[in-house]
Amino acid sequence: MEKLFRDTFVEERDRVWLATHHLDGEVYSWWVGIQDNPNTDVATISWKRFKELLLEHYFLVRVKRKMEQDLREMHQGDRTVAEYEREFTQLLHYAPFVVRDDEDKARIFERGLRPSIFQLMQPSNLQTYQDVVDRALIVESRAIDLQGRREGSDKGKDKRPAAEGASQTH
To answer: b/e string for 128-150 if b means 16 or more Cβ within 10 A?
Structure first.
């Protein structure tokens, strides 16, 4: 539209009117809301200010939706619980509007945990985010310990027992 306005020599004062004349759907509703606001004098909105308002409203809404989707679809994957929690917290820092309260934050984090950890946490019914993180760290730590013990006992199975009757030295 910018190019059209330049090429057809549309004056600054007419650009907002022409642009808003072509708005449809949600964007049109947004503009009507601005027009209906008693504190807004639509006649004084410059083309530059109109573009700023439009970008502020729609760019941020799309970015917010994307961040919310990213946070709700985030999964632990191959990361440790601590790494997952760090990344989750970082993303949440930029999208605090995604969670309603601490319990909602806990549920979103919990659903993103690796299934093997998530399943072991289900009976606990923890309510706070910090409790969920702490429990996930404990479950992960126990799983690592158990895996280490299994690997240790598997290595022991590979060793052949001493032959019967063989002399043993002390």
So the answer is: ebeebbebbeebbeeeeeeeeee
